[in-house]
Amino acid sequence: MFYYMAVGAGMEILSNMKLLGITLAFAVVMTGLLIAVDHHPGLHSTLGIWLAVPNLPGLAVLNWANYLTPNTAIWDDGPLSWFMCGFVDWITYVGLAKAVIVVRRKFVT
Fold first, then answer.
1. CB atoms within 10 A of CB 69
2. What average pLDDT values come out for the chain (109 residues) when binned by 10 residues?
Protein backbone atom coordinates (compact mmCIF):
# COMPACT_ATOMS: atom_id res chain seq x y z
CA MET A 1 0.00 0.00 0.00
CA PHE A 2 2.78 2.45 0.88
CA TYR A 3 4.65 1.49 -2.28
CA TYR A 4 1.60 2.34 -4.38
CA MET A 5 1.25 5.72 -2.68
CA ALA A 6 4.95 6.46 -3.19
CA VAL A 7 4.81 5.48 -6.85
CA GLY A 8 1.66 7.54 -7.30
CA ALA A 9 3.30 10.53 -5.63
CA GLY A 10 6.35 10.10 -7.85
CA MET A 11 4.21 10.03 -10.95
CA GLU A 12 2.42 13.17 -9.76
CA ILE A 13 5.76 14.95 -9.35
CA LEU A 14 6.89 13.78 -12.78
CA SER A 15 3.59 14.93 -14.21
CA ASN A 16 4.00 18.34 -12.57
CA MET A 17 7.55 18.68 -13.92
CA LYS A 18 6.37 17.72 -17.39
CA LEU A 19 3.54 20.25 -17.12
CA LEU A 20 5.97 22.99 -16.06
CA GLY A 21 8.33 22.12 -18.91
CA ILE A 22 5.64 22.08 -21.57
CA THR A 23 4.10 25.36 -20.42
CA LEU A 24 7.56 26.96 -20.17
CA ALA A 25 8.40 25.86 -23.72
CA PHE A 26 5.06 27.21 -24.97
CA ALA A 27 5.59 30.55 -23.19
CA VAL A 28 9.15 30.89 -24.56
CA VAL A 29 8.05 30.07 -28.11
CA MET A 30 5.08 32.43 -28.02
CA THR A 31 7.11 35.29 -26.52
CA GLY A 32 9.93 34.69 -28.99
CA LEU A 33 7.53 34.78 -31.92
CA LEU A 34 6.00 37.97 -30.58
CA ILE A 35 9.47 39.57 -30.29
CA ALA A 36 10.25 38.57 -33.89
CA VAL A 37 6.96 39.97 -35.17
CA ASP A 38 7.43 43.15 -33.14
CA HIS A 39 10.74 43.89 -34.85
CA HIS A 40 9.68 43.30 -38.44
CA PRO A 41 5.97 43.61 -39.38
CA GLY A 42 4.91 45.16 -36.08
CA LEU A 43 2.41 44.31 -33.40
CA HIS A 44 -0.45 46.04 -35.22
CA SER A 45 -0.17 43.71 -38.20
CA THR A 46 -2.50 40.73 -38.54
CA LEU A 47 0.19 38.33 -37.38
CA GLY A 48 1.02 40.58 -34.43
CA ILE A 49 -2.59 40.69 -33.31
CA TRP A 50 -2.94 36.91 -33.58
CA LEU A 51 0.26 36.39 -31.57
CA ALA A 52 -0.81 38.94 -28.99
CA VAL A 53 -3.82 36.83 -28.03
CA PRO A 54 -1.90 34.01 -26.27
CA ASN A 55 0.48 36.64 -24.82
CA LEU A 56 -2.33 38.82 -23.51
CA PRO A 57 -1.68 38.40 -19.76
CA GLY A 58 2.00 39.26 -20.15
CA LEU A 59 1.29 42.21 -22.40
CA ALA A 60 -1.35 43.52 -20.00
CA VAL A 61 1.06 43.38 -17.05
CA LEU A 62 3.80 44.92 -19.20
CA ASN A 63 1.57 47.85 -20.19
CA TRP A 64 0.44 48.26 -16.60
CA ALA A 65 4.07 48.41 -15.41
CA ASN A 66 4.83 50.91 -18.17
CA TYR A 67 1.88 53.01 -17.02
CA LEU A 68 3.02 52.97 -13.39
CA THR A 69 6.57 54.07 -14.29
CA PRO A 70 6.02 56.57 -17.13
CA ASN A 71 9.35 58.44 -17.01
CA THR A 72 11.64 55.41 -17.03
CA ALA A 73 12.88 53.49 -20.03
CA ILE A 74 12.97 50.12 -18.23
CA TRP A 75 9.91 48.67 -19.97
CA ASP A 76 10.44 50.19 -23.43
CA ASP A 77 11.08 47.15 -25.64
CA GLY A 78 14.02 45.88 -23.64
CA PRO A 79 14.98 42.37 -22.58
CA LEU A 80 13.54 42.90 -19.10
CA SER A 81 10.15 43.78 -20.51
CA TRP A 82 10.03 40.70 -22.74
CA PHE A 83 11.26 38.48 -19.89
CA MET A 84 8.47 39.79 -17.66
CA CYS A 85 5.94 39.24 -20.44
CA GLY A 86 7.08 35.63 -20.92
CA PHE A 87 7.18 34.96 -17.17
CA VAL A 88 3.64 36.23 -16.61
CA ASP A 89 2.45 34.20 -19.60
CA TRP A 90 4.14 31.09 -18.19
CA ILE A 91 2.48 31.54 -14.79
CA THR A 92 -0.87 32.00 -16.55
CA TYR A 93 -0.39 28.87 -18.68
CA VAL A 94 0.54 26.80 -15.61
CA GLY A 95 -2.58 28.00 -13.80
CA LEU A 96 -4.81 27.25 -16.76
CA ALA A 97 -3.30 23.79 -17.24
CA LYS A 98 -3.71 22.99 -13.55
CA ALA A 99 -7.34 24.13 -13.70
CA VAL A 100 -7.98 21.89 -16.72
CA ILE A 101 -6.41 18.93 -14.88
CA VAL A 102 -8.54 19.52 -11.78
CA VAL A 103 -11.76 19.84 -13.77
CA ARG A 104 -10.91 16.76 -15.84
CA ARG A 105 -10.21 14.70 -12.72
CA LYS A 106 -13.42 15.87 -11.11
CA PHE A 107 -15.71 15.07 -14.01
CA VAL A 108 -13.96 12.22 -15.83
CA THR A 109 -13.05 9.94 -12.93
1. 10
2. 45 76 95 91 90 92 84 74 93 93 84
